[in-house]
DNA sequence: AATGAATGAGTCTTCATTCAT
DNA sequence: GATGAATGAAGACTCATTCAT
């Protein structure tokens, strides 16, 4: 598929808006086409099928997401700082794109199991980034040597995810970003070498 | 609806099996009816519509779930012990019912948003139980006085949920229960008064 | 079927009320049973099937209807008077039973064609009564000798029927009975020997 | 809906045939689609739902019907002639389209009440045309000055309708058109100033 | 005679996808 | 490349009727 053509992103952006505003099951292909100002059939010149729109959407947006966080993390020297900056940016990016937040926290999860497996592959990259920070923390002695990396990562990701989902379910009506340091501290406590 | 009639639970149990094995979107009413050995129409004597099956299923199973955990927690005297026993039982109950684990971790989340709002109301009870443990820990000085109860609860629930989901996504092929103490310790560290 | 048992009429009367208030297609057997204070299955001890309820209802009510009109007509000596009294009573009887009026003018006609053929057989008796009056009028010279009995009857029945239907469609909000003499006069003019 | 597309009328014509031959309640959408040589889904590109087919059918056919009668009436100078020509054409048009006659006289009336209300709005136009003829007759002195226009119209429409229905119920086996002058005369007599 | 829980056949409608233009 | 009219498969739900008690 021709990913660098402008219509490719045009359709993806339309999909984010339509899914966020109507929900996954009310996001018909024709609605996305209309929002993108293209004909229904045109969608199929850029995407294999409807699920492919969602996967591509997720891959594109998640790619940007991870790239931004990776960059932010790179600027910090300690694992603790990196973890904090990771949480901060996770919250910040989703705060700044309300449509995307709705799509990632609520709507994507309504897709069928097969679709979610593919989406998990996309998340993998993010999980590996978290793992890297954790491993670094163990290596430098910031985190306890006995730390179970997998469990710690699940704690980090699960906590952030649950926090963002709760915020979205409450219609994003409080400030998510300001929760970052507190969340980060609790997580760090859990891992600290003491 | 007539909840004490045997057919009510018969249908719910059939739904758990069918949804776990086929996924929510492939769990046709006729398939559930067949599994329950009743006619399609009989379903509608006990449930308003298809969504009502899922909500009822979740309410019944979650009711049992919370009751079991509440009982286990009641037998412990410190907040820390209570939290550990909560995590242990959360993992234990889902470990022992693989079908239910699939339904709660994957399939229920595919339901439409409106449905999920109702399901959240059912979860509420569980979240309140977690809150109680946290409040007790703050009161007794086990947990730091500055603990943000909401965030802490999101950390506990998010961590357990992500841990179970990862386990389910990996086809339940490792022992979930044995992770409980490690997960519990990390969480406790995060909250401890030091 | 056991027509002299009290439950037979009890069910018919319930059917009139339920059909008038809910419409033919919303008059489920279970609703009629409830209104009649009997079990669903009991209906089938007195009626062959659902259509049989409607046919029986119509036969019973139409029987009473024709009997009343026949009696009123019998008391008059000229064909003209008989026709007038027929129109008057047609309007009077339906005026006094609003539920029945709704059922005969609107709901019965929603039944399937086969059903309506049977209902027509029930009306036959009424049409024959009208024919008798017309024939008498021709015999006595009150009506023109060239009168086409069939057409004249269709004119009488069609006019009365349309008048009642219009009244029912207007929610029976004006006085139907007071239209009788005017309708009767117009019809008589059409038939008069001059 | 796109009324000038050929498929619109193609579907309507198919519906007339299917409804006339099978009855309204046995006229499944799939049957109409097959008769029209289109896919089931295509129906919904031109009609909101099944009821909309019937309403549209009636509106189109009734529109043609009234237009033809209006034209015929326009060519006559006296109210009496107009009334005669109206009856003649009413019978003639339905005589020449046996399928349409079955649909208008029997099947349309089986539709639910809500549907019939909409259909009545379509008939309105025809009733107004009749009213106009009657008013003209009164103005010119052809009809008696005391004529109750509403009742007279009900007599005209009711008589014609009953006459056509009886003819349809008798499988259209006699000549309807030849009854027109006799029916017209009887009606005229009823209204005449003498 | 009476009950009412259980049955299961039957249909409208949506919407992802195609393909002739 | 782009269009959008046409396709047709698929499934939840209702309700008249039955029959074991």
UniProtKB/TrEMBL annotation, chains A, B, C, D:
State the InterPro entries in the record. Homeodomain-like_sf, HTH-type_Tx_Regulator, HTH_TetR, Tet_transcr_reg_TetR-rel_C_sf, Tscrpt_reg_YsiA_C
Domain HTH tetR-type, first and last residues per copy = 5-65
A Pfam family matched in the record: TetR_N
| Keyword line | DNA-binding, Repressor
Q: Which residues form a coiled coil?
A: none
Does the record bear DNA-binding in its keywords? yes
Which positions does the record tag as DNA-binding?
28-47
KW DNA-binding (keyword) present: yes
* Entry protein name: TetR/AcrR family transcriptional regulator
Lineage of producing organism: Bacteria, Bacillati, Bacillota, Bacilli, Bacillales
């Amino acid at each position: 598929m021709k990913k660098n053509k402008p219509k490719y992103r045009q359709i993806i952006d339309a999909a984010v808006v339509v899914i966020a505003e109507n929900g996954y099951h009310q996001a018909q292909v024709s609605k996305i086409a209309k929002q993108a100002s293209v004909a229904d059939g045109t969608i199929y010149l850029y995407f294999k099928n409807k699920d492919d729109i969602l996967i591509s959407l997720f891959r594109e947006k998640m790619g940007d997401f991870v790239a931004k966080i990776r960059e932010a993390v790179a600027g910090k020297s300690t694992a603790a700082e990196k973890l904090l900056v990771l949480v901060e940016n996770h919250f910040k990016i989703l705060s700044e794109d309300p449509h995307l937040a709705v799509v990632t926290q609520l709507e994507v999860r309504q897709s069928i199991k097969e679709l979610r497996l593919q989406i998990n592959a996309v998340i993998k990259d993010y999980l590996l980034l978290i793992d890297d920070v954790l491993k670094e923390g163990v290596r430098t002695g910031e985190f306890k040597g006995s730390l179970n990396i997998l469990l710690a990562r699940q704690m980090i990701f699960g906590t952030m995810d649950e926090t963002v989902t709760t915020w979205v379910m409450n219609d994003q009506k409080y400030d998510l970003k300001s929760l970052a340091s507190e969340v980060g501290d609790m997580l760090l406590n859990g891992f600290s070498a003491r």
